[in-house]
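Researcher: I'd like a candidate sequence for this fold, 595 residues long. If you have to choose between options at a position, lean toward the conservative one.
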Protein backbone atom coordinates (compact mmCIF):
# COMPACT_ATOMS: atom_id res chain seq x y z
CA UNK A 1 0.00 0.00 0.00
CA UNK A 2 2.67 2.51 1.03
CA UNK A 3 5.67 1.00 -0.78
CA UNK A 4 5.53 3.36 -3.81
CA UNK A 5 5.04 6.41 -1.56
CA UNK A 6 8.26 5.74 0.38
CA UNK A 7 10.16 4.27 -2.57
CA UNK A 8 10.40 0.71 -1.19
CA UNK A 9 10.86 -2.22 -3.54
CA UNK A 10 8.51 -4.22 -1.25
CA UNK A 11 7.08 -4.05 2.26
CA UNK A 12 10.05 -4.13 4.66
CA UNK A 13 8.19 -4.94 7.88
CA UNK A 14 5.60 -7.63 7.11
CA UNK A 15 5.35 -10.04 10.04
CA UNK A 16 5.30 -13.28 8.04
CA UNK A 17 8.60 -15.13 8.58
CA UNK A 18 10.91 -14.53 5.64
CA UNK A 19 14.51 -15.78 5.77
CA UNK A 20 15.49 -13.16 3.15
CA UNK A 21 15.11 -10.50 5.86
CA UNK A 22 16.86 -12.48 8.62
CA UNK A 23 19.08 -10.29 10.79
CA UNK A 24 21.46 -12.39 12.86
CA UNK A 25 22.22 -10.81 16.20
CA UNK A 26 24.79 -12.48 18.41
CA UNK A 27 22.12 -14.49 20.23
CA UNK A 28 20.42 -15.57 16.96
CA UNK A 29 23.76 -16.62 15.49
CA UNK A 30 24.52 -18.68 18.59
CA UNK A 31 21.14 -20.44 18.44
CA UNK A 32 21.62 -21.19 14.73
CA UNK A 33 25.09 -22.63 15.39
CA UNK A 34 23.71 -24.79 18.21
CA UNK A 35 21.09 -26.32 15.90
CA UNK A 36 23.52 -26.82 13.01
CA UNK A 37 26.29 -28.30 15.17
CA UNK A 38 23.86 -30.52 17.07
CA UNK A 39 22.41 -31.96 13.87
CA UNK A 40 25.77 -32.52 12.13
CA UNK A 41 27.28 -34.04 15.30
CA UNK A 42 24.17 -36.24 15.70
CA UNK A 43 23.47 -35.16 19.26
CA UNK A 44 19.92 -36.54 19.45
CA UNK A 45 17.55 -34.04 21.07
CA UNK A 46 18.22 -30.28 20.78
CA UNK A 47 16.26 -27.56 22.61
CA UNK A 48 15.97 -23.94 21.36
CA UNK A 49 13.98 -21.40 23.41
CA UNK A 50 12.77 -17.90 22.63
CA UNK A 51 9.89 -15.55 23.39
CA UNK A 52 6.95 -15.20 21.01
CA UNK A 53 8.04 -13.07 18.05
CA UNK A 54 11.77 -13.44 18.73
CA UNK A 55 12.51 -14.91 15.26
CA UNK A 56 12.51 -18.65 15.95
CA UNK A 57 10.45 -19.59 12.88
CA UNK A 58 12.59 -17.43 10.57
CA UNK A 59 15.69 -19.11 12.00
CA UNK A 60 14.23 -22.58 11.26
CA UNK A 61 13.46 -21.60 7.66
CA UNK A 62 16.98 -20.23 7.24
CA UNK A 63 18.41 -23.50 8.57
CA UNK A 64 16.35 -25.54 6.07
CA UNK A 65 17.82 -23.47 3.23
CA UNK A 66 21.44 -23.64 4.40
CA UNK A 67 21.92 -27.03 6.08
CA UNK A 68 24.25 -29.60 4.53
CA UNK A 69 22.61 -31.63 1.78
CA UNK A 70 23.47 -34.85 3.58
CA UNK A 71 20.93 -33.85 6.21
CA UNK A 72 17.31 -34.62 5.35
CA UNK A 73 15.62 -31.87 7.36
CA UNK A 74 11.87 -31.37 7.76
CA UNK A 75 10.12 -28.69 9.79
CA UNK A 76 6.69 -29.06 11.35
CA UNK A 77 4.92 -25.73 11.90
CA UNK A 78 1.34 -26.96 12.32
CA UNK A 79 0.07 -27.60 15.83
CA UNK A 80 -0.54 -31.32 16.09
CA UNK A 81 -3.23 -32.85 18.25
CA UNK A 82 -2.06 -36.46 18.19
CA UNK A 83 1.15 -38.38 17.71
CA UNK A 84 -0.27 -40.01 14.58
CA UNK A 85 -0.90 -36.59 12.97
CA UNK A 86 2.68 -35.56 13.68
CA UNK A 87 4.05 -38.73 12.05
CA UNK A 88 1.79 -38.22 9.03
CA UNK A 89 3.14 -34.66 8.60
CA UNK A 90 6.76 -35.88 8.84
CA UNK A 91 6.21 -38.59 6.21
CA UNK A 92 4.40 -36.11 3.98
CA UNK A 93 7.34 -33.68 4.17
CA UNK A 94 9.70 -36.56 3.32
CA UNK A 95 7.44 -37.37 0.35
CA UNK A 96 6.83 -40.87 1.66
CA UNK A 97 3.36 -41.95 0.46
CA UNK A 98 1.15 -42.88 3.38
CA UNK A 99 -2.58 -43.05 3.93
CA UNK A 100 -4.06 -42.36 7.39
CA UNK A 101 -2.97 -45.38 9.40
CA UNK A 102 -2.44 -46.46 12.97
CA UNK A 103 0.58 -45.54 15.04
CA UNK A 104 2.41 -48.84 14.62
CA UNK A 105 2.37 -48.72 10.81
CA UNK A 106 3.39 -45.04 10.74
CA UNK A 107 6.38 -45.70 13.02
CA UNK A 108 7.36 -48.68 10.86
CA UNK A 109 7.29 -46.52 7.72
CA UNK A 110 9.49 -43.89 9.36
CA UNK A 111 11.98 -46.51 10.54
CA UNK A 112 12.09 -47.99 7.04
CA UNK A 113 13.00 -44.53 5.73
CA UNK A 114 15.77 -44.19 8.33
CA UNK A 115 17.19 -47.59 7.34
CA UNK A 116 17.25 -46.48 3.71
CA UNK A 117 19.63 -43.60 4.49
CA UNK A 118 23.33 -44.02 3.77
CA UNK A 119 25.77 -44.01 6.71
CA UNK A 120 26.70 -40.36 6.09
CA UNK A 121 23.06 -39.21 5.93
CA UNK A 122 20.83 -38.25 8.82
CA UNK A 123 17.24 -37.09 9.39
CA UNK A 124 16.48 -33.94 11.38
CA UNK A 125 12.91 -33.18 12.50
CA UNK A 126 12.43 -29.58 13.66
CA UNK A 127 9.19 -28.95 15.59
CA UNK A 128 8.16 -25.30 16.00
CA UNK A 129 5.98 -24.17 18.94
CA UNK A 130 6.84 -27.40 20.73
CA UNK A 131 5.48 -25.99 23.98
CA UNK A 132 1.99 -26.78 22.63
CA UNK A 133 2.66 -30.51 22.30
CA UNK A 134 0.82 -32.68 24.77
CA UNK A 135 2.83 -34.68 27.36
CA UNK A 136 1.74 -37.89 25.64
CA UNK A 137 3.16 -36.76 22.28
CA UNK A 138 6.41 -35.65 23.94
CA UNK A 139 6.81 -39.02 25.61
CA UNK A 140 6.15 -40.79 22.29
CA UNK A 141 8.88 -38.65 20.69
CA UNK A 142 11.32 -39.90 23.30
CA UNK A 143 10.53 -43.47 22.31
CA UNK A 144 10.62 -42.79 18.56
CA UNK A 145 14.25 -43.78 17.82
CA UNK A 146 14.51 -47.56 17.77
CA UNK A 147 17.64 -49.23 19.24
CA UNK A 148 19.03 -49.64 15.70
CA UNK A 149 18.50 -46.01 14.63
CA UNK A 150 19.58 -44.81 18.07
CA UNK A 151 22.90 -46.60 17.82
CA UNK A 152 23.43 -45.28 14.29
CA UNK A 153 22.32 -41.80 15.41
CA UNK A 154 20.37 -41.27 12.21
CA UNK A 155 17.57 -39.24 13.81
CA UNK A 156 17.86 -35.81 15.45
CA UNK A 157 14.86 -34.00 16.90
CA UNK A 158 14.98 -30.22 17.44
CA UNK A 159 12.33 -28.84 19.81
CA UNK A 160 11.83 -25.09 19.29
CA UNK A 161 9.47 -23.22 21.60
CA UNK A 162 8.78 -20.53 24.16
CA UNK A 163 10.53 -20.50 27.58
CA UNK A 164 7.72 -22.45 29.24
CA UNK A 165 8.81 -25.47 27.17
CA UNK A 166 11.82 -25.88 29.48
CA UNK A 167 9.57 -25.76 32.54
CA UNK A 168 7.42 -28.51 31.03
CA UNK A 169 10.45 -30.68 30.32
CA UNK A 170 11.57 -30.22 33.93
CA UNK A 171 8.32 -31.76 35.19
CA UNK A 172 8.61 -35.27 36.70
CA UNK A 173 6.61 -37.03 33.96
CA UNK A 174 8.96 -35.71 31.22
CA UNK A 175 12.22 -36.02 33.13
CA UNK A 176 13.47 -38.86 30.92
CA UNK A 177 12.98 -36.74 27.80
CA UNK A 178 14.81 -33.85 29.47
CA UNK A 179 17.77 -36.16 30.10
CA UNK A 180 17.95 -36.90 26.37
CA UNK A 181 18.45 -33.19 25.53
CA UNK A 182 22.15 -32.72 24.77
CA UNK A 183 22.15 -29.10 23.54
CA UNK A 184 20.04 -26.21 24.80
CA UNK A 185 20.19 -22.55 23.75
CA UNK A 186 17.96 -19.48 24.11
CA UNK A 187 17.29 -16.47 21.88
CA UNK A 188 17.41 -13.33 24.01
CA UNK A 189 15.68 -9.97 23.26
CA UNK A 190 17.54 -7.43 21.15
CA UNK A 191 19.30 -4.52 22.79
CA UNK A 192 18.32 -0.99 21.73
CA UNK A 193 21.42 -0.84 19.52
CA UNK A 194 20.54 -4.16 17.90
CA UNK A 195 16.96 -2.95 17.41
CA UNK A 196 18.23 0.07 15.45
CA UNK A 197 20.45 -2.18 13.34
CA UNK A 198 17.52 -4.55 12.77
CA UNK A 199 15.37 -1.71 11.38
CA UNK A 200 18.25 -0.43 9.23
CA UNK A 201 18.91 -3.97 7.90
CA UNK A 202 15.31 -4.48 6.75
CA UNK A 203 15.18 -1.04 5.11
CA UNK A 204 18.38 -1.80 3.20
CA UNK A 205 16.72 -4.95 1.84
CA UNK A 206 14.05 -2.75 0.18
CA UNK A 207 16.49 -0.15 -1.17
CA UNK A 208 16.04 2.49 1.53
CA UNK A 209 17.68 3.70 4.72
CA UNK A 210 16.64 4.92 8.17
CA UNK A 211 17.51 8.60 7.70
CA UNK A 212 15.20 8.87 4.68
CA UNK A 213 12.02 7.65 6.37
CA UNK A 214 12.46 8.07 10.16
CA UNK A 215 13.44 10.92 12.46
CA UNK A 216 15.95 9.93 15.19
CA UNK A 217 13.33 10.61 17.90
CA UNK A 218 10.82 8.31 16.19
CA UNK A 219 13.37 5.48 16.04
CA UNK A 220 14.16 5.99 19.75
CA UNK A 221 10.48 5.73 20.63
CA UNK A 222 9.92 2.58 18.56
CA UNK A 223 12.98 0.79 19.92
CA UNK A 224 12.09 1.66 23.51
CA UNK A 225 8.55 0.29 23.30
CA UNK A 226 9.39 -2.79 21.24
CA UNK A 227 11.51 -4.12 24.14
CA UNK A 228 13.82 -5.99 21.79
CA UNK A 229 11.13 -8.12 20.15
CA UNK A 230 11.57 -8.35 16.34
CA UNK A 231 7.88 -8.98 15.66
CA UNK A 232 6.89 -5.94 17.73
CA UNK A 233 9.42 -3.84 15.84
CA UNK A 234 7.79 -4.97 12.58
CA UNK A 235 4.28 -4.15 13.82
CA UNK A 236 5.21 -0.67 15.04
CA UNK A 237 7.20 0.25 11.92
CA UNK A 238 4.57 -1.11 9.54
CA UNK A 239 1.77 0.83 11.23
CA UNK A 240 3.91 3.96 11.40
CA UNK A 241 4.31 3.88 7.62
CA UNK A 242 0.56 3.35 7.21
CA UNK A 243 -0.19 6.45 9.31
CA UNK A 244 2.53 8.46 7.59
CA UNK A 245 1.15 7.48 4.19
CA UNK A 246 -2.34 8.57 5.27
CA UNK A 247 -0.93 11.95 6.36
CA UNK A 248 1.24 12.25 3.22
CA UNK A 249 4.39 12.56 5.36
CA UNK A 250 7.57 11.32 3.74
CA UNK A 251 9.32 10.95 7.09
CA UNK A 252 7.85 9.24 10.17
CA UNK A 253 8.16 11.51 13.22
CA UNK A 254 7.30 11.33 16.94
CA UNK A 255 3.60 12.36 16.66
CA UNK A 256 3.03 9.55 14.15
CA UNK A 257 4.68 6.97 16.42
CA UNK A 258 2.69 8.29 19.39
CA UNK A 259 -0.53 7.79 17.44
CA UNK A 260 0.48 4.23 16.56
CA UNK A 261 1.37 3.46 20.18
CA UNK A 262 -1.97 4.82 21.34
CA UNK A 263 -4.00 3.04 18.64
CA UNK A 264 -2.32 -0.29 19.31
CA UNK A 265 -2.43 0.24 23.09
CA UNK A 266 1.31 -0.19 23.59
CA UNK A 267 1.30 2.54 26.22
CA UNK A 268 -0.84 3.31 29.24
CA UNK A 269 -3.02 6.44 29.45
CA UNK A 270 -0.82 7.93 32.20
CA UNK A 271 2.24 7.75 29.96
CA UNK A 272 0.36 9.29 27.06
CA UNK A 273 -0.73 12.18 29.28
CA UNK A 274 2.87 12.79 30.38
CA UNK A 275 3.98 12.89 26.74
CA UNK A 276 1.47 15.54 25.72
CA UNK A 277 2.60 19.20 25.68
CA UNK A 278 2.16 21.11 28.93
CA UNK A 279 -0.34 23.49 27.34
CA UNK A 280 -2.59 20.61 26.30
CA UNK A 281 -2.37 19.08 29.79
CA UNK A 282 -3.23 22.43 31.38
CA UNK A 283 -6.30 22.83 29.15
CA UNK A 284 -7.40 19.28 29.89
CA UNK A 285 -6.99 19.87 33.61
CA UNK A 286 -9.14 23.00 33.39
CA UNK A 287 -11.75 21.09 31.42
CA UNK A 288 -11.80 18.35 34.02
CA UNK A 289 -12.18 20.89 36.84
CA UNK A 290 -15.03 22.56 34.94
CA UNK A 291 -16.73 19.22 34.44
CA UNK A 292 -16.52 18.51 38.17
CA UNK A 293 -18.08 21.92 38.97
CA UNK A 294 -20.94 21.28 36.56
CA UNK A 295 -21.46 17.85 38.10
CA UNK A 296 -21.72 19.25 41.64
CA UNK A 297 -24.17 21.95 40.49
CA UNK A 298 -26.33 19.31 38.83
CA UNK A 299 -26.35 17.18 41.99
CA UNK A 300 -27.33 20.20 44.12
CA UNK A 301 -30.18 21.18 41.80
CA UNK A 302 -31.42 17.60 41.73
CA UNK A 303 -31.53 17.46 45.56
CA UNK A 304 -33.43 20.75 45.72
CA UNK A 305 -35.93 19.48 43.17
CA UNK A 306 -36.48 16.28 45.19
CA UNK A 307 -37.03 18.29 48.38
CA UNK A 308 -39.57 20.49 46.59
CA UNK A 309 -41.49 17.49 45.28
CA UNK A 310 -41.48 15.93 48.76
CA UNK A 311 -42.84 19.14 50.32
CA UNK A 312 -45.65 19.35 47.75
CA UNK A 313 -46.67 15.75 48.38
CA UNK A 314 -46.65 16.29 52.15
CA UNK A 315 -48.78 19.44 51.97
CA UNK A 316 -51.15 17.75 49.55
CA UNK A 317 -51.70 14.88 51.94
CA UNK A 318 -52.31 17.24 54.86
CA UNK A 319 -54.80 19.60 53.19
CA UNK A 320 -56.47 17.36 50.62
CA UNK A 321 -57.08 14.13 52.56
CA UNK A 322 -60.59 13.09 53.64
CA UNK A 323 -61.94 12.48 57.17
CA UNK A 324 -59.59 10.74 59.52
CA UNK A 325 -60.08 7.01 59.54
CA UNK A 326 -59.68 4.86 62.61
CA UNK A 327 -56.19 3.41 62.90
CA UNK A 328 -57.48 -0.12 62.61
CA UNK A 329 -59.21 0.71 59.32
CA UNK A 330 -55.99 2.07 57.86
CA UNK A 331 -53.97 -0.89 58.97
CA UNK A 332 -56.23 -3.92 59.46
CA UNK A 333 -53.27 -6.06 60.33
CA UNK A 334 -50.99 -4.51 62.92
CA UNK A 335 -47.53 -5.80 63.69
CA UNK A 336 -47.39 -7.24 67.24
CA UNK A 337 -45.49 -5.50 69.99
CA UNK A 338 -42.14 -7.05 70.78
CA UNK A 339 -42.32 -8.54 74.24
CA UNK A 340 -39.97 -10.92 75.95
CA UNK A 341 -37.68 -13.04 73.82
CA UNK A 342 -36.71 -12.18 70.28
CA UNK A 343 -38.66 -14.02 67.61
CA UNK A 344 -37.11 -17.29 66.60
CA UNK A 345 -36.79 -18.54 63.04
CA UNK A 346 -38.84 -21.52 61.92
CA UNK A 347 -37.06 -24.86 61.80
CA UNK A 348 -34.84 -25.28 58.76
CA UNK A 349 -36.60 -26.90 55.87
CA UNK A 350 -40.12 -25.82 56.95
CA UNK A 351 -41.58 -22.89 55.02
CA UNK A 352 -42.62 -19.86 57.02
CA UNK A 353 -46.31 -18.96 56.90
CA UNK A 354 -46.85 -15.85 54.84
CA UNK A 355 -49.87 -13.65 54.22
CA UNK A 356 -51.80 -13.93 51.01
CA UNK A 357 -50.85 -11.40 48.34
CA UNK A 358 -53.39 -8.69 47.61
CA UNK A 359 -53.83 -7.82 43.93
CA UNK A 360 -52.50 -4.31 43.32
CA UNK A 361 -53.45 -1.84 40.63
CA UNK A 362 -50.94 -1.37 37.83
CA UNK A 363 -49.52 1.82 39.35
CA UNK A 364 -48.69 -0.02 42.55
CA UNK A 365 -46.67 -2.58 40.64
CA UNK A 366 -44.09 -0.03 39.55
CA UNK A 367 -40.65 -0.53 41.05
CA UNK A 368 -40.72 2.77 42.89
CA UNK A 369 -43.96 1.90 44.71
CA UNK A 370 -43.25 -1.64 45.79
CA UNK A 371 -43.20 -2.38 49.47
CA UNK A 372 -45.54 0.55 50.48
CA UNK A 373 -48.78 -0.27 52.39
CA UNK A 374 -51.89 0.42 50.34
CA UNK A 375 -55.40 1.24 51.43
CA UNK A 376 -57.66 -1.77 51.92
CA UNK A 377 -60.61 -2.39 49.65
CA UNK A 378 -63.82 -0.59 50.56
CA UNK A 379 -65.85 -2.43 53.15
CA UNK A 380 -66.78 -2.39 56.84
CA UNK A 381 -63.82 -1.52 59.05
CA UNK A 382 -62.42 -4.41 60.96
CA UNK A 383 -62.81 -3.65 64.65
CA UNK A 384 -60.55 -5.11 67.30
CA UNK A 385 -58.49 -7.06 64.84
CA UNK A 386 -55.92 -9.10 66.72
CA UNK A 387 -52.22 -8.78 65.96
CA UNK A 388 -51.15 -11.23 63.29
CA UNK A 389 -48.51 -11.72 60.65
CA UNK A 390 -46.88 -8.57 59.33
CA UNK A 391 -47.77 -7.33 55.86
CA UNK A 392 -45.90 -9.02 53.04
CA UNK A 393 -42.57 -7.49 52.21
CA UNK A 394 -41.91 -5.99 55.68
CA UNK A 395 -39.38 -8.72 56.41
CA UNK A 396 -40.57 -9.10 60.07
CA UNK A 397 -41.44 -12.47 61.57
CA UNK A 398 -44.46 -13.15 63.83
CA UNK A 399 -43.86 -12.82 67.58
CA UNK A 400 -44.14 -16.09 69.43
CA UNK A 401 -45.70 -14.36 72.45
CA UNK A 402 -48.89 -13.68 70.48
CA UNK A 403 -49.17 -17.14 68.93
CA UNK A 404 -51.72 -18.35 71.46
CA UNK A 405 -53.81 -15.21 71.05
CA UNK A 406 -53.84 -15.72 67.29
CA UNK A 407 -55.18 -19.24 67.71
CA UNK A 408 -58.03 -18.16 70.02
CA UNK A 409 -59.25 -15.10 68.10
CA UNK A 410 -60.33 -15.80 64.53
CA UNK A 411 -59.06 -13.55 61.73
CA UNK A 412 -61.54 -11.06 60.28
CA UNK A 413 -63.25 -12.04 57.07
CA UNK A 414 -61.32 -10.53 54.20
CA UNK A 415 -63.08 -7.91 52.06
CA UNK A 416 -64.88 -9.10 48.94
CA UNK A 417 -62.29 -7.65 46.59
CA UNK A 418 -59.49 -9.66 48.15
CA UNK A 419 -58.95 -12.84 46.19
CA UNK A 420 -56.86 -15.75 47.38
CA UNK A 421 -53.49 -15.88 45.68
CA UNK A 422 -50.69 -18.34 45.64
CA UNK A 423 -48.31 -18.12 48.59
CA UNK A 424 -45.88 -15.25 48.20
CA UNK A 425 -42.43 -16.43 47.19
CA UNK A 426 -39.40 -15.73 49.29
CA UNK A 427 -38.28 -12.16 49.02
CA UNK A 428 -35.72 -11.83 46.29
CA UNK A 429 -33.93 -8.90 44.83
CA UNK A 430 -35.16 -7.92 41.39
CA UNK A 431 -32.81 -9.10 38.71
CA UNK A 432 -30.87 -6.13 37.53
CA UNK A 433 -30.64 -5.74 33.77
CA UNK A 434 -27.32 -6.73 32.25
CA UNK A 435 -24.77 -3.96 32.05
CA UNK A 436 -24.46 -4.53 28.34
CA UNK A 437 -25.64 -6.92 25.64
CA UNK A 438 -22.15 -8.33 25.67
CA UNK A 439 -22.74 -9.65 29.19
CA UNK A 440 -25.61 -11.81 27.93
CA UNK A 441 -23.55 -13.04 25.04
CA UNK A 442 -20.69 -13.99 27.30
CA UNK A 443 -22.89 -16.05 29.56
CA UNK A 444 -24.02 -18.31 26.73
CA UNK A 445 -20.63 -19.89 26.09
CA UNK A 446 -17.75 -21.15 28.15
CA UNK A 447 -14.35 -19.52 27.84
CA UNK A 448 -11.57 -22.06 27.58
CA UNK A 449 -8.49 -21.23 29.62
CA UNK A 450 -5.24 -21.50 27.71
CA UNK A 451 -2.99 -21.43 30.78
CA UNK A 452 -2.20 -19.54 33.98
CA UNK A 453 0.89 -17.32 34.29
CA UNK A 454 2.65 -15.80 37.28
CA UNK A 455 3.29 -12.05 37.10
CA UNK A 456 6.98 -11.17 37.23
CA UNK A 457 8.56 -7.93 38.37
CA UNK A 458 8.14 -5.15 35.82
CA UNK A 459 5.36 -6.92 33.92
CA UNK A 460 1.92 -5.55 33.17
CA UNK A 461 -1.07 -7.05 31.45
CA UNK A 462 0.02 -5.64 28.08
CA UNK A 463 3.47 -7.22 28.17
CA UNK A 464 1.87 -10.53 29.22
CA UNK A 465 -0.54 -10.26 26.28
CA UNK A 466 2.27 -9.48 23.84
CA UNK A 467 4.36 -12.44 25.05
CA UNK A 468 1.54 -14.99 24.92
CA UNK A 469 -0.60 -13.82 22.01
CA UNK A 470 1.84 -11.87 19.84
CA UNK A 471 -0.32 -8.76 20.04
CA UNK A 472 -1.07 -6.33 22.88
CA UNK A 473 -4.10 -4.04 22.71
CA UNK A 474 -7.39 -3.39 24.49
CA UNK A 475 -9.14 -6.15 22.54
CA UNK A 476 -6.83 -8.88 23.85
CA UNK A 477 -6.59 -7.31 27.33
CA UNK A 478 -10.40 -7.17 27.52
CA UNK A 479 -10.52 -10.93 26.93
CA UNK A 480 -7.96 -11.46 29.71
CA UNK A 481 -9.84 -9.21 32.17
CA UNK A 482 -13.07 -11.03 31.38
CA UNK A 483 -11.73 -14.29 32.83
CA UNK A 484 -9.95 -12.47 35.69
CA UNK A 485 -12.74 -10.48 37.39
CA UNK A 486 -10.57 -9.90 40.48
CA UNK A 487 -8.12 -7.73 38.52
CA UNK A 488 -9.51 -4.23 39.17
CA UNK A 489 -7.49 -2.32 36.58
CA UNK A 490 -5.70 -2.98 33.31
CA UNK A 491 -2.74 -0.93 34.58
CA UNK A 492 -1.90 -2.65 37.87
CA UNK A 493 -0.74 -6.18 38.56
CA UNK A 494 0.94 -7.56 41.65
CA UNK A 495 4.18 -9.51 41.52
CA UNK A 496 3.50 -13.29 41.82
CA UNK A 497 -0.18 -12.69 41.02
CA UNK A 498 -1.79 -15.47 39.01
CA UNK A 499 -3.39 -14.42 35.73
CA UNK A 500 -5.55 -16.77 33.71
CA UNK A 501 -5.16 -16.49 29.95
CA UNK A 502 -8.14 -17.39 27.75
CA UNK A 503 -7.83 -19.31 24.53
CA UNK A 504 -8.38 -16.61 21.90
CA UNK A 505 -9.27 -18.40 18.68
CA UNK A 506 -11.54 -17.78 15.71
CA UNK A 507 -14.30 -19.92 17.24
CA UNK A 508 -14.28 -18.02 20.55
CA UNK A 509 -15.12 -14.75 18.74
CA UNK A 510 -18.47 -16.07 17.48
CA UNK A 511 -21.14 -15.40 20.13
CA UNK A 512 -24.50 -17.11 20.54
CA UNK A 513 -27.17 -14.38 20.80
CA UNK A 514 -29.66 -16.76 22.41
CA UNK A 515 -32.33 -16.28 19.73
CA UNK A 516 -30.93 -18.69 17.17
CA UNK A 517 -28.60 -16.11 15.64
CA UNK A 518 -24.91 -15.30 16.16
CA UNK A 519 -22.77 -12.20 16.52
CA UNK A 520 -19.03 -11.75 16.06
CA UNK A 521 -16.61 -9.80 18.23
CA UNK A 522 -14.77 -7.19 16.21
CA UNK A 523 -12.64 -5.68 18.99
CA UNK A 524 -12.56 -3.53 22.12
CA UNK A 525 -11.37 0.06 21.85
CA UNK A 526 -10.53 3.05 24.03
CA UNK A 527 -12.83 5.26 21.97
CA UNK A 528 -15.84 4.40 19.78
CA UNK A 529 -14.33 6.09 16.72
CA UNK A 530 -11.35 3.73 16.83
CA UNK A 531 -13.62 1.06 15.31
CA UNK A 532 -14.40 3.19 12.23
CA UNK A 533 -11.79 1.34 10.17
CA UNK A 534 -14.22 -1.61 10.02
CA UNK A 535 -16.93 0.38 8.24
CA UNK A 536 -17.26 -0.44 4.58
CA UNK A 537 -15.53 -3.81 4.87
CA UNK A 538 -17.03 -6.22 2.28
CA UNK A 539 -17.25 -9.01 4.87
CA UNK A 540 -19.48 -6.80 7.05
CA UNK A 541 -21.66 -5.44 4.28
CA UNK A 542 -25.31 -5.47 5.29
CA UNK A 543 -24.45 -6.16 8.95
CA UNK A 544 -25.05 -3.70 11.77
CA UNK A 545 -22.00 -2.84 13.88
CA UNK A 546 -22.99 -2.21 17.49
CA UNK A 547 -20.87 -0.41 20.08
CA UNK A 548 -21.34 -1.74 23.62
CA UNK A 549 -20.04 0.04 26.71
CA UNK A 550 -17.59 -2.03 28.75
CA UNK A 551 -17.29 -0.73 32.32
CA UNK A 552 -14.16 -1.80 34.17
CA UNK A 553 -14.09 -2.07 37.99
CA UNK A 554 -11.60 0.82 38.22
CA UNK A 555 -14.09 3.15 36.53
CA UNK A 556 -12.66 3.06 33.00
CA UNK A 557 -14.99 2.78 30.03
CA UNK A 558 -14.03 0.82 26.96
CA UNK A 559 -16.09 0.17 23.86
CA UNK A 560 -16.77 -3.26 22.41
CA UNK A 561 -17.71 -3.61 18.76
CA UNK A 562 -19.88 -6.55 17.69
CA UNK A 563 -21.47 -7.19 14.34
CA UNK A 564 -24.43 -8.82 12.82
CA UNK A 565 -27.14 -11.26 13.20
CA UNK A 566 -25.72 -14.29 11.43
CA UNK A 567 -28.05 -17.21 10.92
CA UNK A 568 -25.31 -19.81 11.41
CA UNK A 569 -22.04 -20.02 13.33
CA UNK A 570 -20.22 -20.78 10.07
CA UNK A 571 -21.24 -17.39 8.64
CA UNK A 572 -19.72 -15.65 11.66
CA UNK A 573 -16.53 -17.73 11.39
CA UNK A 574 -16.19 -16.76 7.73
CA UNK A 575 -16.27 -13.05 8.69
CA UNK A 576 -13.65 -13.54 11.44
CA UNK A 577 -11.34 -15.43 9.08
CA UNK A 578 -11.73 -12.80 6.37
CA UNK A 579 -10.85 -9.96 8.77
CA UNK A 580 -7.94 -11.96 10.19
CA UNK A 581 -6.53 -12.63 6.72
CA UNK A 582 -6.62 -8.89 5.97
CA UNK A 583 -4.97 -7.98 9.28
CA UNK A 584 -8.15 -6.27 10.52
CA UNK A 585 -8.86 -8.42 13.57
CA UNK A 586 -7.08 -7.00 16.65
CA UNK A 587 -7.17 -10.38 18.38
CA UNK A 588 -4.42 -11.87 16.20
CA UNK A 589 -0.80 -11.04 15.29
CA UNK A 590 -0.56 -9.08 12.09
CA UNK A 591 -3.28 -6.59 13.05
CA UNK A 592 -2.73 -3.35 11.18
CA UNK A 593 -5.60 -0.93 11.34
CA UNK A 594 -6.22 0.56 7.94
CA UNK A 595 -6.46 4.33 7.66
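Model: Candidate sequence:
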Amino acid sequence: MYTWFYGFSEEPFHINPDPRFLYLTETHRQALNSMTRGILDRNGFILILGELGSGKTTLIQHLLNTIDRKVKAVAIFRHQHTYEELLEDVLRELKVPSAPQNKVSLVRQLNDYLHSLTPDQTLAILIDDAQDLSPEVMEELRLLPTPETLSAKKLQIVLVGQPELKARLDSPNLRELRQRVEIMDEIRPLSEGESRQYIAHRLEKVDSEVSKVFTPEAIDLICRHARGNPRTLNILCDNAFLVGYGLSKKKVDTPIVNEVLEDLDFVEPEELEERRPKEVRRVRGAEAAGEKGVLFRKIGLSLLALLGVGAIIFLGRVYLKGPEEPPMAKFPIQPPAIVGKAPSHPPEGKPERVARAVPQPEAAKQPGLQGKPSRPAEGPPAQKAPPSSPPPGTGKKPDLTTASAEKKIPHPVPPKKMKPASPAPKETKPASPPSSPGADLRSKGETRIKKTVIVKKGENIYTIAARNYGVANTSVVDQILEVNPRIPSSHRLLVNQRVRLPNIAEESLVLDSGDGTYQVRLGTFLRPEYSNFLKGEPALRGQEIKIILRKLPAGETWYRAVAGKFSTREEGLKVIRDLKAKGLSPYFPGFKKKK
